[in-house]
Specification:
YczE/YyaS-like; Permease; membrane; globular; transmembrane; about 210 residues; mainly alpha; transmembrane helix
Length: about 210
C-alpha cells in the first residue's frame, strides 16, 4: 500500500507538471523556462515535436549522470524522461488550452502554468522515486566538482538558455522570472506533499498493526 501511495503521487505529479509546461508553451512569446526554450528552438530548427526533444535531451542527461554518479538514477528518473515529453505532446495535441491573445489574460495563464509546474514538481518529487533527469544531472555534476547545487543550476540553465537563444528560442521577460515564481511554489508543495505521504503511511501502518493484533 505504501508503494501504491508513492506511485500515485509520482504519476499525478508528472501529469500535473506536464500540464503546466503545456500551458506555458501556449504563451511562449512571454518567455519560457530555459530548458523549454531549447526544446522549442530545436523543434523549430530541426523538426520533431517539442516533447520528443524533451525526451532526447532527458536521455542524454541521464547517460551523463550515469557516468558521473549512478546514485541519483532510479526507475522514476527514466519514467520522468519519457512521460513528461509524452504528456506535454498529448496536451498540445488535444488543442484545448487557450492560445495566446496578446493581452493581460496571457500573463494570467502563464502564471497559472508556472504555478501548476511548481505544484506538480513538488508532488512527484515528494514520492522520492528518483530525481528528474535535469535534477539528477545537476546533482551529479555538483557532487563531482564539489560545488553547490544552486551554483551549478544557475550555470547549467544559463548555458542552456544561451544555446536556446542562439538557436532562436522564445526568450522574454518570463524566462528570467520563471524560477522566482516556480521555486517557492515547488518548495512549499514538496514540503506539504511529503507530510501528507508520511501521514498516510503512518495511518496505513496503524491499520496493519491493528489487524495483526486482532
Amino acid at each position: 500500500m505504501t508503494r501504491v501511495i508513492r506511485w500515485l503521487f509520482y504519476f499525478s505529479g508528472l501529469f500535473m507538471f506536464s500540464y503546466g509546461i503545456a500551458i506555458a508553451l501556449k504563451m511562449q512569446y512571454l518567455g519560457i523556462h530555459p530548458w523549454d526554450v531549447l526544446n522549442v528552438a530545436l523543434y523549430e530548427k530541426l523538426g520533431l515535436i517539442i516533447g520528443t526533444w524533451a525526451i532526447i535531451i532527458s536521455i542524454l542527461l541521464i547517460i551523463v549522470s550515469w557516468v558521473l554518479d549512478k546514485s541519483y538514477i532510479k526507475i522514476g528518473t527514466f519514467l520522468n524522461a519519457i512521460l513528461v515529453g509524452v504528456f506535454v505532446d498529448f496536451f498540445l495535441w488535444l488543442d484545448f488550452l487557450p492560445t495566446a491573445g496578446h493581452n493581460w489574460f496571457d500573463i494570467v495563464m502563464m502564471v497559472i502554468g508556472i504555478i501548476t509546474m511548481g505544484i506538480g514538481g513538488g508532488l512527484y518529487n515528494s514520492a522520492e522515486m528518483g530525481a528528474g533527469p535535469r535534477d539528477g544531472f545537476m546533482l551529479s555534476i555538483a557532487e563531482k566538482l564539489g560545488k553547490s547545487v544552486g551554483l551549478i543550476r544557475i550555470i547549467v540553465e544559463l548555458l542552456v538558455l544561451l544555446l536556446g537563444l542562439c538557436l532562436g528560442g522564445p526568450v522574454f521577460l518570463f524566462t528570467f522570472i520563471f524560477t522566482f515564481i516556480q521555486s517557492p511554489v515547488f518548495a512549499f508543495s514538496l514540503d506539504k506533499f511529503k507530510g501528507i505521504i508520511i501521514l498516510m503511511e503512518r495511518r496505513n501502518m496503524k491499520k496493519q498493526s491493528t489487524r495483526t493484533s486482532a
